[in-house]
Amino acid sequence: MESTEKLTDTNAILAYLYETFPLCFIAEGETKPLKIGLFQDLAERLADDSKVSKTQLRIALRRYTSSWRYLKGVKAGAQRIDLDGTPCGELEQEHIDHAQSTLKESQEKAKAKRVAKAAAAKSEGQAAKANKKPAKKPAAKRAKPAPKPVKEQAPEVILTPAVLNELKQNQRVNVKLGKTPVAGVILDIKKEDVQVQLDSGLTVKVRIEHIML
Predict the structure, then answer these.
(1) What topology is assigned to 10-107 in CATH?
(2) Beta carbons within 10 angstroms of residue 195's beta carbon
(3) In DSSP terms, which residues pair with 182 in a beta bridge?
């Protein structure tokens, strides 16, 4: 009997769309701009599919079209496509300008966030080190128990982009599929393509720029 369990995780829904509509939703590499009104086509095509809801489809579609690789694909000369990969006309200049503006803004925000996190982690580490008190020496006549050491707060883990020639098989990495990186293990490396088995069990092949350490 076919499973009727609903998919609720956005990454899982995207993986389902990659598998169901491979000519429209591209899992790795350069993407193609989608047809205006594609959500309606998608909702109608999956109307009888119990695995996904319209709400979850809308969220997954929004994540796909706001990703950097999608925004980079919205450029002059590119053709919009429908669910079957059929061209639906060239992009209008205002849509290209909007995509490039959104991409630039998103990249600047990401950079600022990384800088702020690094500064906060450094500040917390320095504060914890400064507040750490030395253990008191026991009195000559009466021994006193040494005070408990002050635990330093561990700095926040910051993910950094991976370097291709430093990666190897069976290495633990994080794959940037959306806003939240997903942990996994490297299975194979071919040129700039890295095959990773996610902790969820799903195997994906991504470019090196989507690998974080």
Answers:
(1) Fertility Inhibition Protein O; Chain: A; Domain 1 (1.10.1710)
(2) 15
(3) 175
User: What residues contact 78, with CB distance under 8 A and at least 6 apart?
Assistant: 32, 33, 90, 91
- Residue written as tokens 């800088």? 115
Measure the CA dihedral 159/113/108/9, to 10°: 60
pTM of the model: 0.52
Q: Strand, coil or helix: what is 205?
A: strand
| pLDDT tens digit at each of 213 positions of the chain | 344 578 889 999 999 999 999 999 999 989 999 999 999 999 999 998 888 899 999 999 999 999 999 999 999 999 999 999 999 989 999 999 999 999 999 999 999 999 999 999 888 888 877 777 666 665 556 666 777 766 666 455 577 888 888 888 899 999 888 777 889 998 998 878 889 898 888 888 888 888 888
The CATH architecture to which 171-212 belongs is Roll (2.30)
CA atoms within 13 A on the CB side of 66: 10
Q: For Cα atoms 36, 44, 53, give the angle at the middle one, nearest 5 degrees.
A: 100
Enumerate the domain spans of the chain: 10-107, 171-212
The CB-side HSE value for 4 (13 A sphere, CA atoms) comes to: 3
CA-to-CA separations, 205 to 54, 160, 172, 187, 209, in angstroms, rounded: 27, 19, 15, 10, 12
